[in-house]
Amino acid sequence: MAHVQGSNFVHVGVTGDRVPGRALVVSTLDNLNKGSSGQAVQNANLMLGLPETQGLLAPPIFP
Predict the structure, then answer these.
(1) Rounded distance, CA 60 to CA 63, Å?
(2) DSSP secondary structure letters along 44-57
C-alpha cells in the first residue's frame, strides 16, 4: 500500500499458480484518488480548461 498511498496509481502483480494453467493476480490502489474524488478533480480540470490529469499524476505520499 505504501507505494500507491495518496496517488492515482495502481500496482499489479502476476505470478503463476501451483495449478497448471492458472495465474494469481494481486493489485493494490488507494481508492481515495481512484474513486469519486479523483474523478471530481479530473472533471474540474476539464471545466477549467486544464490538462485532464493535472494534479492526478503526483508521486505517492509516504507516511
Answers:
(1) 10
(2) HHHHHT--TTTTTS
Residue 61 within a domain: no
Instruction: Let me know the angle formed at the C-alpha of 48 by 43 and 52, rounded to the nearest 5 degrees.
Output: 50
pTM as predicted:
0.53
Quick check: 61 pLDDT over 70?
A: no
- Measure the CA–CA gap between 50 and 8, rounded to whole angstroms: 17
Total tally of structural domains belonging to the chain: 1
Question: Distance between CA 7 and CA 61 in Å, rounded?
Answer: 7
Which range of residues forms the domain containing residue 26?
10-48
